[in-house]
Amino acid sequence: MAASLQFNFKPLFLTKSSTNHATKFATIRCSTSPPSKSYTITLLPGDGIGPEVISVAKNSLQLVASLEGIKFKFNEMPMGGAALDLTGVPLPEETLLAAKQSDAVLLGAIGGYKWDNNEKHLKPETGLLQLREGLKVFANLRPATVLPQLVDASTLKKEVAEGVDLMVVRELTGGIYFGKPRGFSTNENGEELGFNTEVYATHEIDRIARVAFETARKRRGKLCSVDKANVLEASMLWRKRVTLIASEYPDVELSHMYVDNAAMQLVRNPKQFDTIVTNNIFGDILSDEASMITGSIGMLPSASLGESGPGLFEPIHGSAPDIAGQDKANPLATVLSAAMLLKYGLGEEKAAQRIEAAVLDTLNRGFRTGDIHSAGLNLVGCKEMGEQVLKSIDSTVPAAV
Ligand code: IPM
Ligand code: MG
């Protein structure tokens, strides 16, 4: 299975300067794949707009596969609320097993009003956390790039948003999301308590720091580590370890920033950032904020990678139950997640570039879903956007790798 070399090709970088490295490692990886280049992809459509956007991404993958001589076997499995309705749990064993046995996993979105009041172990979100934990995908890469075509969709002034190209490297399987003790209890007055634990061990910090330094090295060589080391012990250790690991990467310029300041700087002057590394919860929050600089959360993909095994690829947006089933969703974040799957999950750089180029071409031809629409452009639904992406894949020749 190709996935076992995932971290040998230290992937990670949606940037022009990375091409040579990515190609080199991709070659290593491809040489271990069977000659037919056949991959099994687990599709987890999930809830809300999930099935709509996954269907578009699947068609895009199928078309690039036919153009690049790749074969995909798609294995669609229930997950989230859909799985709860079907099996009573948000991540059925069969789904996790199928995911583990595949070469890469593509997820739509999970969650919805229907399951909002479920007990914690029966929430769709719990299934997603179990999936991340089960696949051991500790490194979550969330690029936020302002495309020139969409600069007007940003709520920030043009001169602030223009040219932003940053990557949030979020720790994904530790910290307060998983720390123990956690739970509910009562205090001595009989008052209800809810509590969680923010905890990091050195090995968890060291490995995400290395991914972040590698990422920064292949981008513009700047890494900003975001923490709350003025208050939290877990952040004090975080800062100490990141500073220590920095000695392995003398070519990368490291800075540290408190998370409250980082939240402010992201909207004040986002161009100061290249690569940001941060813990699970700060990464969750800052990546949503970063997405708004780009205009719409509907545009942003993500890749979650571990030391070995399949990666998990998903748009960073949620299931948007308010527009589910109405053919209004923007499928581009999922299509771009499929491109990340090809590039970082399978080492299929050229196929990934075909998809990225097609997305740009579709935008250049003026097609917009509601979330990124502005006057004079062609407002389309999810399906039509998908059709236009397919048209662009067919007609756009990507730049040579
Ligand atoms: C995300 C989401 C998830 C998270 C939820 C759905 C559990 O917000 O991927 O950013 O908090 O990690
Ligand atoms: Mg989030």
Automatic annotation (TrEMBL):
GO terms for molecular function: 3-isopropylmalate dehydrogenase activity; metal ion binding. It catalyses: (2R,3S)-3-isopropylmalate + NAD(+) = 4-methyl-2-oxopentanoate + CO2 + NADH. It comes from the Eukaryota. GO terms for biological process: L-leucine biosynthetic process. Its EC number is 1.1.1.85. Catalyzes the oxidation of 3-carboxy-2-hydroxy-4-methylpentanoate (3-isopropylmalate) to 3-carboxy-4-methyl-2-oxopentanoate. The product decarboxylates to 4-methyl-2 oxopentanoate. PANTHER family: 3-ISOPROPYLMALATE DEHYDROGENASE. Belongs to the isocitrate and isopropylmalate dehydrogenases family. This is 3-isopropylmalate dehydrogenase. It comes from Forsythia ovata.
